[in-house]
Amino acid sequence: MKPIKNRSLLIFILGLLSAIGPFSIDMYLPGFPTIAASLHTTVDKVSYSLSSFFIGICVGQLLCGPLLDRFGRKKPLLIGLVLYIIASVACSLSRSVESLVAFRFLQAVGGCVGMVAPNAIVRDVFPVHENAKVFSLLILILGVSPILAPTVGSYVVAHLGWQVVFIILAIVATVISLMVVKWLPESKAADPSYSLKPASILQGYRQVLRERQFTTYALSGAIASAGLFAYLAGSPFVFMQLYGVSEQQYGLIFAFIAAGLIGCSQLNNRVLRKFNSAQILRFVLLSQSLVGFLLIVGIAAGLLGLYGIIALMLLFLSCQGFTFPNAAALAMAPFSKGAGSASALMGAIQMIFGALASALVGVFFNGTAVPMAAIMAFCAISGFIILRAGHSRMELAASEDEIEHQTMEMIEKF
To answer: Where is the Major facilitator superfamily (MFS) profile domain (predicted)?
Structure first.
């Protein structure tokens, strides 16, 4: 690729693409009760449209990753955006919760390319040592979603109807598509040698999974991030129905908590001047585990009121501002070739655990905040355990390689 002429514009467009998925999630959350009433169903059944969205992102990423490596970045990106726009309009026309769940799946399949392509393009364009900083900048743009989307969504739902939320999403995606056509450079030429046969695609994913560094950081980061999805699925009920806040108040609470995540993502750039990504990730996942433990104990024991829950959720989700950029940079670092497939697999792993976490909130629903808090805590603790186990495996492998290297040197001397 030619040298970057406008680095800021490139990062801005990549950030907008990355924000499509979060906007699609956050903007309609305040409308859960209204959607349930309109479609003659319950809030917990409406939450399945969130789970179907996560599943669609997972499936879609596995499909579009190889397409990005085969046809370059722009063509699959634009096709995905067109599908997203069509599915968004279809969501607005839904007359049953079942059709909404189905169209949300298709919306995710199209929109997921906006999550995969930016990661691959960052790996294509920027030096490896800058990737964590670039991902932090993407989160700054991405962070507009959880601040603006619920607030705008609550206003739209209250005054225009929940269907208009999906029309707005379609319009936003159309504008982004035009920006991609006009200003996004192609970062990787099409590769006719890249096979799209199922066996070849699976073999490519197997090669990615054989990389210990990828599996360690992609898996630990994904499981820890699943706590965020549990929060997304459970927070509408916890705040609006359990604690009785209005749709507008929920939007403000959501934005306040999201501000912590965004602030920490930018603080990450400063912290990277003194510590490397692996050190930061290890400390943050330990901290998040401790906060998650306090959250579930406090809720189960009845020690936390509304403000206590908001405070601990702020601390818990602020950790994600450090987790994502560092875990993503470390997972993608080994791949100068096949970055599209690696990015897709990383995203798919994240969505698998995200969909599972959000679905479990509904499965264990008992009219309290305990299921949401328990799943959030479990995700954080599990992510930290997997990170430590992965580090041990990598250190052991490095020691074995060093011993093998020394042995070969001794043999050559004799």
So the answer is: 10-391
